[in-house]
Amino acid sequence: MFVGSFLVENREELGQLRLVKLSLKTESGNGCGNVKTNTSAGSSSTSKDVDSEVQVAAAVEFTQAVQAVVADAARPQLSLASNSIADLTLRYNVKKPESNLYNSTTYQAAQGYDCSNIWQKNNSATSGIYMIKPRNAICSFKVYCEMSENGGWTLIQKHNGEDNLDFFATWKEYQYGFGDLKGEHWLGLEYIYALTHQTQRPSKLNISLGDFDGNEAYAEYRSFSIGEAKKFYKLAAANYSGTAGDAFLGFSNIPGSREHGSYFSTWDNYHDNCHEVCGTGDEKYQSCSDQYQSGWWFNACGLANLNGVWHAPPRHLHRSTSVSWPSWKFAESLKFSKMYLIYN
């Protein structure tokens, strides 16, 4: 169950200070996406409800530990091995210092399974940050809900350059999320897994895109889910409709461009199909994530890459590291992308 975050680590690999998210592990110990389902009975069963006295007591203990660390402000950088939080069972994730993606150190009850569920309970609900607990998930977590007269959409990615958020992130960051829920962010693969594996709540993916000329387009997949961590969050997207084209499908004349069924990769943990080497001519590389400076469902390497580097005009054309959805804009870095999960 997530309960808080605090600045505790400087990651030298990227040369910038980040936030380390600290969260209590549940009994299964593998993150919010873990699911325990009683399929024979046709119903789901979670390890422990987030409202249980045991987990609330654990949250209080963790909050007290965080407060103790905050009080020790004399040290500009803290070590997990030398502070009181080290006595707790921790999961960490490195993030930018301006991030408030997971900034609550107090226990909060879930307000629904997802944003669609919250809207179904209250059609007048407004857009903003909500605490949710998907069916079968073992923890609650915060998301940004975009509410309209048509329903509630759960935002899992937003990339528009406004926060200068660096998406060239580690495996742990992509697992547990980074950025600001009110601005640019990646929700986290563990949480996306939980959201796409709810009993009797199939999820749709809606991708909203915009270019620098004011044009907008969308791609929607009526069936969308990702695999669990041990399967490297394998992409499953089907039944496309929309105006932006199916960039996951790739182009038949470009080998390795299809991303349907691909595994997620980051620069420090890649599962693409480069094998020994990718590239053409003199440009050779062994990691799509490293080459295109993002985490994504790369093939070898594929074409779509909504977590790519944000480039402003006039330097947004013909950039390999771009925010890319080439079935709509082939050689152009996009102004924005937003990825939503929707439930009927």
Plain-language structure description:
By secondary structure, the chain is an alpha+beta fold. The chain has a domain at 4-201: Gamma Fibrinogen, Chain A, domain 1, CATH 3.90.215. Helices cover 13% and strands 24% of the residues. The chain has five helices and 15 strands. It has helices at residues 53-71, 115-121, 171-176, 189-195, 288-292; strands at 4-11, 16-24, 37-38, 43-44, 90-91, 94-95, 128-132, 141-148, 151-159, 178-179, 185-186, 204-210, 216-226, 235-242, 336-342. Strands 7, 8, 9, 10, 11, 12, 13, 14 and 15 form a nine-stranded antiparallel sheet that branches. Strands 1, 2, 5 and 6 form a four-stranded antiparallel sheet that branches. It has a two-stranded antiparallel sheet with strand order 3-4. Strand 13 (216-226) and strand 14 (235-242) form a beta hairpin. It is globular and about 55 Å long.
Secondary structure topology:
Blueprint: E1 4-11, E2 16-24, E3 37-38, E4 43-44, H1 53-71, E5 90-91, E6 94-95, H2 115-121, E7 128-132, E8 141-148, E9 151-159, H3 171-176, E10 178-179, E11 185-186, H4 189-195, E12 204-210, E13 216-226, E14 235-242, H5 288-292, E15 336-342
Antiparallel strand pairs: 1-2, 2-5, 2-6, 3-4, 7-8, 8-9, 9-11, 9-15, 10-11, 12-13, 12-15, 13-14
Order of helices and strands: EEEEHEEHEEEHEEHEEEHE
Biggest sheet overview: 9 strands, antiparallel
The portion of residues assigned to helices is 10-25%
What is the CATH domain class of the domain at 4-201? Alpha Beta
